């Protein structure tokens, strides 16, 4: 009976989505006008092709991540803009579980990559986590796994974050102080050059005297000695 309720809930949610005004329904409406095939049939065929592509297609990882991100992101924005806070909690819970799952997948992807139909199962898991029911995958995983672990280690994590924040601030202050001190020292080491123009001006008279003496020729010296010879 529980499985029938899940299928019925998913069906109602899909029909509600197809009756809404959005980009997907606009595209499906245009396709329905051109082909004459109902939107429900086109959507079912698209879902079937997506499932086959996840099993056999190239780039299934990207498609699976888009499925797990685009739809929840769209409804998260709608939840933020709505006055009701219940849907905010729902999608925040999904993103927490999605983050934990992505972290675990990062360290185990090298092994899970070779698992047959891995991305198809991953896509089903993400769809279960975002399923439109109160006990979907994100609610169960959060209440059974994430929340108990978080409450058990909350104080330790808060102290660790506080210590890291204080150490980061101290390191930033010390680095800023050292940079400023280095700049001040470098500025003080710059020695001003001596005034070149004044030294050249002082040396001009002696230079002119030497040049005038040097210009006296032998004929002038002989003229000065003639009176003594006569």
From TrEMBL:
| Any single GO CC term annotated in Swiss-Prot or TrEMBL for this entry | endoplasmic reticulum membrane
Where does the sequence pass through the membrane? 41-71
Return the annotated region ranges for Disordered: 195-230
Q: Which residues form a coiled coil?
A: none
InterPro entries cross-referenced by the UniProt entry = TB2_DP1_HVA22
Name of the protein in its database record: Receptor expression-enhancing protein
Q: Which Pfam families match?
A: TB2_DP1_HVA22
Q: Where is the composition biased (Polar residues)?
A: 200-214
Q: Which family does it belong to?
A: Belongs to the DP1 family.
Query: May I ask which residue range the UniProt record assigns to the signal sequence?
Result: none
The membrane-topology field of this record reads: Multi-pass membrane protein
Localization of this protein: Cytoplasmic vesicle, Clathrin-coated vesicle membrane; Endoplasmic reticulum membrane; Membrane
Q: What keywords sit in the KW lines?
A: Cytoplasmic vesicle, Endoplasmic reticulum, Membrane, Transmembrane, Transmembrane helix
Question: Which organism does this record belong to?
Answer: Astatotilapia calliptera
Report the domain of life of the source organism: Eukaryota
């Amino acid at each position: 009976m529980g499985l029938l309720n899940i299928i019925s809930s998913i069906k109602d949610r899909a029909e509600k989505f197809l009756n809404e005004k959005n980009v997907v329904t606009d595209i499906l409406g245009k396709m329905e006008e051109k082909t004459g095939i109902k939107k429900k049939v086109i959507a079912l065929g698209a879902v079937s092709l997506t499932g086959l592509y996840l099993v056999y297609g190239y780039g299934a990882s990207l498609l699976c991540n888009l499925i797990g991100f685009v739809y929840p992101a769209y409804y998260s924005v709608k939840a933020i803009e709505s006055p009701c806070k219940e849907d905010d909690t729902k999608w925040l819970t999904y993103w927490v579980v999605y983050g934990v799952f992505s972290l675990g997948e990062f360290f185990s992807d090298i092994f899970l990559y070779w698992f047959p139909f891995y991305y198809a199962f991953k896509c089903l898991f993400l769809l279960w986590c975002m399923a439109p029911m109160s006990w979907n995958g994100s609610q169960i995983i959060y209440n059974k796994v994430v929340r108990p672990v978080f409450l058990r280690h909350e104080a330790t994590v808060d102290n660790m974050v506080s210590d890291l924040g204080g150490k980061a601030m101290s390191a930033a202050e010390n680095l800023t102080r050292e940079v400023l001190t280095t700049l001040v020292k470098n500025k003080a080491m710059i020695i001003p050059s001596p005034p070149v123009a004044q030294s050249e001006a002082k040396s001009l008279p002696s230079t002119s005297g030497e040049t005038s003496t040097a210009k006296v020729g032998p004929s002038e010296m002989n003229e000065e000695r003639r009176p003594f010879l006569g």
